[in-house]
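Input sequence (304 aa), recorded before submission:
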Amino acid sequence: MSNGRVTILDGGMGRELERRGAPFKQPEWSALALMKAPGIVKQVHKDFIRNGAGVISTNSYALVPFHIGEELFQNQGRALAASAGQIACDAVAEIQSSARIAGSIPPLFGSYRADLYQPERVSEIATPLIEGLSPYVDLWLCETQSLLAEAISVRLLIDSLDDEKKPVWISFTLEDEEVTKEPLLRSGEPVADAVEAMSDLNVEAILFNCCQPEVIGDAIQVTRDKLASLSCLEIEIGAYANAFAPQPKNATANEGLDDMRADLTPSAYLSWAQQWRRKGAALIGGCCGIGPDHIALLAEKLVV
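Predicted structure, C-alpha coordinate format:
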Protein backbone atom coordinates (compact mmCIF):
# COMPACT_ATOMS: atom_id res chain seq x y z
CA MET A 1 0.00 0.00 0.00
CA SER A 2 1.05 3.61 0.53
CA ASN A 3 4.59 4.49 1.50
CA GLY A 4 3.17 7.31 3.61
CA ARG A 5 2.96 9.86 0.82
CA VAL A 6 -0.21 11.21 -0.76
CA THR A 7 -0.64 11.77 -4.49
CA ILE A 8 -3.06 14.59 -5.26
CA LEU A 9 -5.43 14.00 -8.17
CA ASP A 10 -7.31 16.72 -10.05
CA GLY A 11 -10.93 17.71 -9.51
CA GLY A 12 -14.07 17.51 -11.63
CA MET A 13 -13.73 18.71 -15.22
CA GLY A 14 -17.38 19.04 -16.22
CA ARG A 15 -18.69 21.50 -13.66
CA GLU A 16 -15.47 23.50 -13.82
CA LEU A 17 -16.04 23.94 -17.56
CA GLU A 18 -19.58 25.09 -16.86
CA ARG A 19 -18.36 27.53 -14.21
CA ARG A 20 -15.97 29.10 -16.73
CA GLY A 21 -18.66 29.56 -19.35
CA ALA A 22 -17.56 26.80 -21.73
CA PRO A 23 -20.25 25.20 -23.91
CA PHE A 24 -21.88 22.77 -21.51
CA LYS A 25 -25.22 20.97 -21.57
CA GLN A 26 -26.72 17.54 -21.57
CA PRO A 27 -26.42 15.10 -23.16
CA GLU A 28 -22.90 15.97 -24.37
CA TRP A 29 -21.64 17.08 -20.94
CA SER A 30 -17.88 17.77 -20.95
CA ALA A 31 -17.49 16.46 -24.52
CA LEU A 32 -19.08 19.65 -25.85
CA ALA A 33 -16.19 21.80 -24.64
CA LEU A 34 -13.71 19.28 -26.04
CA MET A 35 -15.24 19.83 -29.47
CA LYS A 36 -16.04 23.55 -29.29
CA ALA A 37 -13.70 25.10 -26.70
CA PRO A 38 -10.58 22.94 -26.33
CA GLY A 39 -8.62 25.92 -25.06
CA ILE A 40 -10.79 26.09 -21.96
CA VAL A 41 -10.30 22.37 -21.38
CA LYS A 42 -6.55 22.88 -21.49
CA GLN A 43 -6.77 25.83 -19.10
CA VAL A 44 -8.70 23.75 -16.57
CA HIS A 45 -6.02 21.05 -16.75
CA LYS A 46 -3.30 23.66 -16.22
CA ASP A 47 -5.08 25.22 -13.26
CA PHE A 48 -5.50 21.87 -11.54
CA ILE A 49 -1.79 21.20 -12.02
CA ARG A 50 -0.82 24.65 -10.76
CA ASN A 51 -2.98 24.06 -7.69
CA GLY A 52 -1.17 20.86 -6.81
CA ALA A 53 -2.53 17.95 -8.83
CA GLY A 54 0.14 15.36 -9.54
CA VAL A 55 -2.22 13.38 -11.77
CA ILE A 56 -4.75 14.83 -14.22
CA SER A 57 -7.43 12.88 -16.07
CA THR A 58 -8.13 13.28 -19.76
CA ASN A 59 -11.42 14.93 -20.70
CA SER A 60 -12.75 11.73 -22.25
CA TYR A 61 -15.44 10.86 -19.71
CA ALA A 62 -18.35 11.77 -21.98
CA LEU A 63 -16.96 10.24 -25.19
CA VAL A 64 -19.48 7.40 -25.28
CA PRO A 65 -22.72 6.95 -27.25
CA PHE A 66 -24.71 7.59 -24.06
CA HIS A 67 -23.54 11.21 -24.22
CA ILE A 68 -22.54 12.06 -27.79
CA GLY A 69 -24.84 9.69 -29.69
CA GLU A 70 -24.15 6.62 -31.77
CA GLU A 71 -23.36 8.37 -35.07
CA LEU A 72 -20.87 10.85 -33.69
CA PHE A 73 -19.20 8.15 -31.62
CA GLN A 74 -18.83 5.84 -34.61
CA ASN A 75 -17.44 8.61 -36.81
CA GLN A 76 -15.27 10.55 -34.38
CA GLY A 77 -14.97 8.67 -31.08
CA ARG A 78 -11.36 7.61 -31.55
CA ALA A 79 -10.27 11.01 -32.87
CA LEU A 80 -11.98 12.82 -30.00
CA ALA A 81 -10.25 10.55 -27.50
CA ALA A 82 -6.92 11.35 -29.14
CA SER A 83 -7.75 15.05 -28.93
CA ALA A 84 -8.48 14.71 -25.21
CA GLY A 85 -5.12 13.01 -24.73
CA GLN A 86 -3.26 15.62 -26.77
CA ILE A 87 -4.82 18.52 -24.84
CA ALA A 88 -3.76 16.98 -21.53
CA CYS A 89 -0.22 16.48 -22.85
CA ASP A 90 -0.07 20.06 -24.07
CA ALA A 91 -1.20 21.34 -20.67
CA VAL A 92 1.53 19.39 -18.88
CA ALA A 93 4.19 20.49 -21.38
CA GLU A 94 3.25 24.17 -21.43
CA ILE A 95 3.79 24.60 -17.71
CA GLN A 96 6.73 22.19 -17.65
CA SER A 97 5.05 19.96 -15.10
CA SER A 98 5.88 16.42 -14.02
CA ALA A 99 2.19 15.62 -13.55
CA ARG A 100 1.11 12.25 -14.88
CA ILE A 101 -1.80 11.85 -17.27
CA ALA A 102 -4.53 9.32 -16.51
CA GLY A 103 -6.52 8.08 -19.47
CA SER A 104 -10.14 8.34 -18.31
CA ILE A 105 -12.24 5.34 -19.36
CA PRO A 106 -15.80 6.14 -18.31
CA PRO A 107 -18.76 3.88 -17.57
CA LEU A 108 -19.63 2.83 -21.10
CA PHE A 109 -23.43 2.88 -20.73
CA GLY A 110 -24.11 5.79 -18.39
CA SER A 111 -23.07 6.86 -14.92
CA TYR A 112 -24.59 4.98 -11.97
CA ARG A 113 -26.62 2.67 -14.21
CA ALA A 114 -25.46 -0.90 -13.71
CA ASP A 115 -28.81 -1.98 -15.14
CA LEU A 116 -27.89 -0.58 -18.59
CA TYR A 117 -24.76 -2.72 -18.97
CA GLN A 118 -24.42 -4.43 -22.37
CA PRO A 119 -21.51 -6.92 -22.23
CA GLU A 120 -21.62 -7.53 -25.97
CA ARG A 121 -20.75 -3.86 -26.65
CA VAL A 122 -17.83 -3.39 -24.25
CA SER A 123 -15.11 -3.88 -26.86
CA GLU A 124 -16.96 -1.84 -29.50
CA ILE A 125 -17.15 1.22 -27.24
CA ALA A 126 -14.01 0.96 -25.14
CA THR A 127 -11.55 0.05 -27.91
CA PRO A 128 -11.64 3.43 -29.74
CA LEU A 129 -11.15 5.24 -26.42
CA ILE A 130 -8.19 3.08 -25.43
CA GLU A 131 -6.59 3.31 -28.87
CA GLY A 132 -7.13 7.06 -29.13
CA LEU A 133 -5.77 7.84 -25.67
CA SER A 134 -2.92 5.34 -25.53
CA PRO A 135 -0.13 7.48 -27.07
CA TYR A 136 -0.72 10.27 -24.58
CA VAL A 137 -1.34 8.72 -21.17
CA ASP A 138 0.85 7.41 -18.37
CA LEU A 139 -1.78 5.22 -16.75
CA TRP A 140 -5.39 4.12 -17.15
CA LEU A 141 -8.22 5.25 -14.87
CA CYS A 142 -11.47 3.33 -15.27
CA GLU A 143 -13.86 5.66 -13.49
CA THR A 144 -17.27 5.55 -11.83
CA GLN A 145 -17.62 1.80 -12.22
CA SER A 146 -21.02 0.71 -10.89
CA LEU A 147 -20.80 -2.95 -11.80
CA LEU A 148 -18.05 -5.46 -11.22
CA ALA A 149 -18.60 -7.22 -14.56
CA GLU A 150 -17.92 -4.02 -16.53
CA ALA A 151 -14.81 -3.20 -14.51
CA ILE A 152 -13.43 -6.68 -15.14
CA SER A 153 -14.22 -6.59 -18.86
CA VAL A 154 -12.62 -3.18 -19.41
CA ARG A 155 -9.55 -4.07 -17.40
CA LEU A 156 -9.04 -7.24 -19.49
CA LEU A 157 -9.57 -5.28 -22.70
CA ILE A 158 -6.92 -2.75 -21.71
CA ASP A 159 -4.53 -5.61 -21.06
CA SER A 160 -5.12 -6.96 -24.56
CA LEU A 161 -4.71 -3.59 -26.31
CA ASP A 162 -1.99 -1.80 -24.36
CA ASP A 163 1.37 -3.23 -25.38
CA GLU A 164 3.16 -0.94 -22.92
CA LYS A 165 1.20 -2.41 -19.97
CA LYS A 166 0.65 0.95 -18.32
CA PRO A 167 -0.63 0.90 -14.74
CA VAL A 168 -4.38 0.44 -14.37
CA TRP A 169 -6.46 2.10 -11.67
CA ILE A 170 -10.07 1.03 -11.16
CA SER A 171 -12.44 3.44 -9.44
CA PHE A 172 -15.86 2.33 -8.23
CA THR A 173 -18.88 4.47 -7.41
CA LEU A 174 -20.80 3.57 -4.28
CA GLU A 175 -24.43 3.32 -3.28
CA ASP A 176 -25.11 6.63 -1.53
CA GLU A 177 -28.88 6.99 -1.58
CA GLU A 178 -29.40 4.66 1.37
CA VAL A 179 -27.40 3.87 4.48
CA THR A 180 -26.27 0.25 4.28
CA LYS A 181 -24.56 -2.06 6.76
CA GLU A 182 -21.65 -2.55 4.41
CA PRO A 183 -20.36 -0.41 1.53
CA LEU A 184 -21.86 -1.46 -1.79
CA LEU A 185 -21.31 -0.66 -5.44
CA ARG A 186 -24.34 0.87 -7.12
CA SER A 187 -25.07 -2.59 -8.52
CA GLY A 188 -25.57 -3.81 -4.95
CA GLU A 189 -22.36 -5.86 -5.01
CA PRO A 190 -20.22 -5.66 -1.85
CA VAL A 191 -17.04 -3.61 -2.01
CA ALA A 192 -15.17 -6.56 -0.49
CA ASP A 193 -16.06 -8.69 -3.53
CA ALA A 194 -14.89 -5.96 -5.91
CA VAL A 195 -11.57 -5.64 -4.07
CA GLU A 196 -10.96 -9.38 -4.24
CA ALA A 197 -11.73 -9.45 -7.97
CA MET A 198 -9.43 -6.50 -8.68
CA SER A 199 -6.61 -8.06 -6.67
CA ASP A 200 -6.64 -10.95 -9.14
CA LEU A 201 -6.35 -8.62 -12.14
CA ASN A 202 -3.03 -6.90 -11.45
CA VAL A 203 -4.42 -3.41 -10.88
CA GLU A 204 -2.17 -0.83 -9.28
CA ALA A 205 -4.90 1.03 -7.40
CA ILE A 206 -8.51 0.71 -6.25
CA LEU A 207 -10.38 3.98 -5.80
CA PHE A 208 -13.88 5.28 -5.05
CA ASN A 209 -15.38 8.27 -6.86
CA CYS A 210 -18.50 10.17 -7.88
CA CYS A 211 -20.41 9.43 -4.70
CA GLN A 212 -20.98 11.18 -1.39
CA PRO A 213 -17.90 11.74 0.76
CA GLU A 214 -19.84 10.32 3.69
CA VAL A 215 -19.85 6.77 2.26
CA ILE A 216 -16.24 6.58 1.13
CA GLY A 217 -14.52 6.14 4.49
CA ASP A 218 -16.14 2.77 5.19
CA ALA A 219 -15.28 1.58 1.68
CA ILE A 220 -11.63 2.51 2.22
CA GLN A 221 -11.57 0.60 5.51
CA VAL A 222 -13.09 -2.50 3.91
CA THR A 223 -10.62 -2.24 1.04
CA ARG A 224 -7.66 -1.90 3.36
CA ASP A 225 -8.73 -4.87 5.46
CA LYS A 226 -9.45 -7.05 2.44
CA LEU A 227 -6.15 -6.26 0.74
CA ALA A 228 -4.33 -7.08 3.97
CA SER A 229 -6.10 -10.42 4.21
CA LEU A 230 -5.11 -11.17 0.62
CA SER A 231 -1.51 -10.04 1.16
CA CYS A 232 -1.93 -7.46 -1.63
CA LEU A 233 -0.36 -4.56 0.21
CA GLU A 234 1.18 -3.15 -2.98
CA ILE A 235 -2.24 -2.02 -4.29
CA GLU A 236 -2.87 1.64 -3.46
CA ILE A 237 -6.23 3.01 -2.30
CA GLY A 238 -7.76 6.26 -3.48
CA ALA A 239 -10.82 8.48 -3.25
CA TYR A 240 -12.38 11.44 -5.04
CA ALA A 241 -15.95 12.29 -4.06
CA ASN A 242 -18.46 14.48 -5.84
CA ALA A 243 -20.49 17.42 -4.56
CA PHE A 244 -23.86 16.12 -5.75
CA ALA A 245 -26.76 15.21 -3.52
CA PRO A 246 -27.23 11.43 -3.15
CA GLN A 247 -28.05 9.81 -6.49
CA PRO A 248 -30.91 7.27 -6.79
CA LYS A 249 -30.57 3.89 -8.48
CA ASN A 250 -32.60 5.10 -11.47
CA ALA A 251 -30.61 8.30 -11.93
CA THR A 252 -31.17 9.75 -15.41
CA ALA A 253 -27.89 11.51 -16.05
CA ASN A 254 -28.89 13.03 -19.37
CA GLU A 255 -32.11 14.74 -18.28
CA GLY A 256 -30.58 17.75 -16.56
CA LEU A 257 -27.81 19.08 -14.33
CA ASP A 258 -27.80 17.92 -10.73
CA ASP A 259 -27.78 20.47 -7.93
CA MET A 260 -24.51 20.91 -6.09
CA ARG A 261 -24.09 20.78 -2.32
CA ALA A 262 -23.27 24.15 -0.80
CA ASP A 263 -21.66 22.65 2.29
CA LEU A 264 -18.67 21.02 0.56
CA THR A 265 -16.39 24.03 0.74
CA PRO A 266 -12.65 23.45 0.32
CA SER A 267 -12.18 23.26 4.10
CA ALA A 268 -15.13 20.89 4.56
CA TYR A 269 -13.90 18.66 1.76
CA LEU A 270 -10.43 18.65 3.30
CA SER A 271 -11.90 17.23 6.52
CA TRP A 272 -13.26 14.26 4.59
CA ALA A 273 -9.98 13.82 2.74
CA GLN A 274 -8.07 13.79 6.01
CA GLN A 275 -10.36 11.03 7.26
CA TRP A 276 -9.71 9.01 4.10
CA ARG A 277 -5.99 9.52 4.57
CA ARG A 278 -6.13 8.23 8.13
CA LYS A 279 -7.96 5.13 6.90
CA GLY A 280 -5.30 4.40 4.28
CA ALA A 281 -6.01 6.38 1.10
CA ALA A 282 -2.91 7.55 -0.76
CA LEU A 283 -4.53 8.88 -3.94
CA ILE A 284 -6.90 11.77 -3.19
CA GLY A 285 -8.68 14.27 -5.42
CA GLY A 286 -12.17 15.37 -6.35
CA CYS A 287 -14.97 14.56 -8.76
CA CYS A 288 -17.97 16.60 -9.98
CA GLY A 289 -18.13 20.02 -8.34
CA ILE A 290 -14.72 19.80 -6.67
CA GLY A 291 -12.65 22.59 -8.19
CA PRO A 292 -9.10 23.95 -8.22
CA ASP A 293 -9.54 25.71 -4.86
CA HIS A 294 -10.40 22.38 -3.23
CA ILE A 295 -7.36 20.74 -4.83
CA ALA A 296 -5.08 23.56 -3.70
CA LEU A 297 -6.07 23.03 -0.08
CA LEU A 298 -5.62 19.24 -0.36
CA ALA A 299 -2.14 19.78 -1.78
CA GLU A 300 -1.26 22.25 0.97
CA LYS A 301 -2.48 20.11 3.88
CA LEU A 302 -1.99 16.50 2.77
CA VAL A 303 1.36 16.57 1.01
CA VAL A 304 4.34 16.67 3.34
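Checked by second reader. Residues 7-302 form a domain with the TIM Barrel fold (CATH 3.20.20.330).
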